[in-house]
Amino acid sequence: MANRSNPLVDSEYQSGKKLLNDLLRLRREGNYVFRGISRKIEWKPAIQRYYSNGKYYNLVEYEYRMLYDFFQKWNLRHFNSSENILELVASAQHYGIPTRLVDWTRDPYVALYFAVNNNSDPDDGCYSLIYTNLNNHTVLDSLRMTLTVGDIIKGDPDILFNYMRFLRTIGDREELKGLLDTRNLDLAEMNVESSLHYNEDGLIFYDSPLSNERLLAQKGLFSIPDSLVDQEAANQIKKFTEEIKIRLSPKDRDELIKYLENMNYSRNYLFPDLQNLCRYIVDKTIKFADE
User: Fold this and answer.
1) Longest pairwise C-alpha distance within the chain
2) What is the pTM (predicted TM-score) of this model?
3) Is position 4 within any domain?
4) According to a count of CB atoms within 10 Å of the terminal CB, is the N or C end of the chain lower?
């Protein structure tokens, strides 16, 4: 069962303007995170969406294999020597490697952009915004699971050992609580007020340090499912989140996209790299030519 609905928002919208106003009030109300979807399959982690043709795949093995290749072949100058394994996995996903990480944002308008912008024909005729209060979940950081550039250069077959160990840990809530308690004690000794916390129920979030431009622009963070079996990850998200459905006519969708662009929520802003700047310019020019 999902958490109690927030009284500031409705469960379904047909007016983009009212939705924008209500999302602003919701963002101010509490420690919420958001995810925008337009297809049912987007309840699942990226790697499950990528391998979704009905065949059986050992997704855990494929995830490890792709990450290992990514760490080996990507130019090492893109890695900082202090980066931890979760941060590297997050960077891999942002640049196209499908992993188990599920993208969220602290900004509801970013989530709304991803929901409505790329799909004019959503499943069941509606877009969805999923949201939940972080206070009801486990929130963690790197938990000392470092993977340095030196580790990558060595080419050790156990390069992903820290990641595999972490995934085993999140399947054992008592062990995870112990790690978080130790982490918070260490931070307290340095007079650092920690935002990390444990909840025996709910999702597990990784609060990323926003170490790349995309994460920073998108105010991104991730939830981490402990299973890639069937619908388990998607069902866990559905259990602990609220859903806002958005039914828009083509005209209303176009109008909402323009509102978001005027608020600076566009591909140019959310993907601040040269490749996507070029795509933004091309898409904008083609749209202008068709009008």
Assistant:
1) 61
2) 0.83
3) no
4) C
Task: Supply the DSSP string of 197-216, one letter for each residue.
Answer: B--SSS-EEE-----SHHHH
Here the tokens at position 231 are 């619908």
Number of domains in the chain: 1
Q: Give residue 148's Cα distance to chain centre.
A: 24
State which amino acid sits at residue 275. Answer: Q
d(CA 269, CA 291): 23
Task: Determine the Cα–Cα distance for residues 122 and 267; give it in Å rounded to an integer.
Answer: 19
Indicate the helix (H) or strand (E) that contains 129.
Answer: strand 127-133
Nearest Cα to 104, choosing from 46, 178, 180? 46
Q: Does the residue 1 lie in any domain?
A: no
Report whether 68 contacts 12 (CB < 8 A): no
Within 8 A by CB and 6+ apart from 267, the residues are: 117, 276, 279, 280, 283
Note down pLDDT in tens along the chain; length 291 residues. Answer: 444 456 678 888 987 788 998 998 888 888 999 999 999 999 999 999 988 776 677 888 888 888 888 877 765 555 554 456 777 788 788 778 899 999 999 999 999 999 999 899 999 999 999 999 999 999 987 655 444 444 444 444 455 666 777 787 777 888 888 878 887 888 788 887 777 888 888 999 988 766 677 778 888 899 999 889 889 999 999 999 999 999 999 999 999 999 999 998 988 788 877 666 677 677 767 765 665
Q: Which of 155, 147, 156 is nearest to 88 (CA)?
A: 147
Parent domain of 139: 12-290
Position 7 in a domain: no
Examine residue 174 and state whether it is found in any structural domain, yes or no: yes
Cα-flanking dihedrals φ and ψ of residue 41, to 5°?
A: -65, -20
